[in-house]
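Researcher: Good morning. I'm working through a list of sequences from a screen, and I'd like to move beyond sequence-only analysis. For each chain I'm collecting a predicted structure so we can compare shapes side by side. This is the next one on the list. No need for commentary yet; just the structure.
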Amino acid sequence: MDRPKFHFFDGPNELLRREEEEEEKNSHFGSPPRPKMAAVGDAGHESGTPRRGETAADKILVEAREEVAPFVDYAVERALSLKQTLQSITDSSIQIAGSRIAEIRSTSSAHLNQTLEELRTVKEKYDELEDVFFGKIKEGVFAAYTHPALSCGIAVGLGILVPRNSRRYLYHNTLRLFMREESMISRANDEMKNLQGSINKIKQHIDLWENSAKNAQEEFERGRTKLRQSGLQIQNAIHSVHQIEKKARGLKELLGDLPAQNAANLQKQVSSLAKEAKKERCALSTAVSKITNYGIPI
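Model: Good morning. Structure tokens for this chain:
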């Protein structure tokens, strides 16, 4: 692909050409012509001597422009190629995104259409079943209306069969019609034997329970008697402890009359004995209270 080249620096021939064009324009408008600038040829460069109308500064400027021009052209070409690359990348990205969006739209629309078709199919089937159901109801109502005797008979039959007692009565009467008398008697005997066996088992269990209750009652009476006897013994022990406490108090009073040096040790022993007796009496009183709480008089 050919790219346009941009020259920021023009040579002397180009400057001369532009001056001639300006003179031609001025001649049309009546302005005086400007003096022409001598063109710089290959011979002037080879000789190294500046021509008429050209200075050393112009020569240096021309040489600098000629040296810089290739670099400027290369930079412009690279910028244009980079711009073209970015443009192509942008176009390809836009194209890919558009294709993806179109694909997503087509896929979603396909799924939506499929779902709508399934819903329509389900609705059609439901409508068909509804029509069949109500059609059967209409047929039944019409048949009952056209055959009132049959409808009454069916209603009476359902009224007889639905209750439990009616079904049982009908079942037994039907068995009587289709079974012989001997088979009915044998069946009744078997049922009686089963009932008798069940009653015998219940009697055995009742005897066992009665014996267990009797033994428990006897044990309870024995325990009650033992508790009463224990309560009496505890009361006797409480009375004895009470007597011990009285004797300890009397002994403590006697020891109080003796000199303190001789009776100090004995007073301590009597006091500890009285405390132990009181503690035992409280424990025995608690045991008696528990026995009386069971309803056993002492």
